[in-house]
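Please, structure for the following, as tokens.
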Amino acid sequence: MKHLLNWALSALAVWIVARLVPGFHVSGPLAALIAALVIGFVNATLGVFLKIVTFPLVLLTLGLFWLVINAAMIELASAVVPGFHVDTFGAAFLGAIVLALVNMFFRWLAGTGRDRG
């Protein structure tokens, strides 16, 4: 049940980002659900690999390069998901920042974040 709630919250976050960030487009709720699923899958597979490979660069930039990787993962997801489109890399970069903040807020609000104990 927790995974379904996280998926729904991620889809809502994608929809909100599409309303806030110019160049970030979602055609409807189904596209937002699929986009959230694909973004999560791409981040869990290819994103983890890229974060490991680019770790020295991440250290050098104090973690800011992870935003570039997240933006690339969003660009990749937009190439795969019909109804989800990102116009430019700049829109994907800004979208990655806003998406992370909105997701963090939703997880805090719903109490579905990681347990720190």
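Helices lie at 2-20, 29-53, 55-60, 65-80, 89-110. The chain has a mean pLDDT of 90.
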